Amino acid sequence: MAQTGNFKSPARMSSLGQGAAPASAGAVTGGKPREEGLKGVDFERRGFLHKIVGGVGAVVAVSALYPVVRYIIPPAKKIKIVNELAVGPESDVPNGTGKIYQFNEDKVIVVNHGGSLTAVSAVCTHLGCLVHWDEAANELACPCHGAKYKQTGQIISGPQPLPLKQYNAKIGDGKIVVSIA
Ligand code: FES
């Protein structure tokens, strides 16, 4: 059975003329003012929402930037290493000319000088510029710092420390075939 004898409502207290003023309407259990308690809750909720919004923003930013980054930095192509490769038709390199082909991981220049076909790396051993065939001077020339090489890759002059790497070149079935020397 409920006890009613000790019940002290503010109305009853004032009607009885007894003491203390009624507790504030803003009080919460445990003596903590309601506003203060709610401020804490509000602050926690805001912090949580900030985290959610930040997380969603980060996901959106990453998903938007990923394709751009992949476009700018494409994945490295896997090059199949072979001993021999038909790089192009014989007509590609007429007498007195040279042409650069991709061969394994190197760029190779095939030169036709008086019908003699040679292939050497086209990558200058100085700082990596690509050489070209200068038929008039009968040499491979680097446009960057003036390195000169013989058709077979040996150094003629310039700042380069090493000769050009040599490959084999021949005609087979009407095609230029480059192979590892
Ligand atoms: S890169 Fe060829 S001479 Fe410097």
What does the model show?
With 181 residues, the chain is α+β, with helices and mostly antiparallel strands. Helix content is 25%, strand content 28%. It is built from two helices and ten strands. The chain has helices at 10-16, 34-72, and strands spanning 84-89, 97-103, 106-113, 116-121, 132-134, 139-141, 148-149, 155-157, 166-172, 175-180. Strands 1-10-9-4-3-2 form a six-stranded antiparallel β-sheet, with no helix packed on it. Strands 5-6-7-8 form a four-stranded antiparallel β-sheet, with no helix packed on it. A hairpin with a 4-residue loop joins strand 5 and strand 6 (139-141). The radius of gyration is 42 Å and the shape is elongated. Residues 1-8 and 15-28 have low confidence and may be disordered. Bound molecules: FE2/S2 (inorganic) cluster (FES).
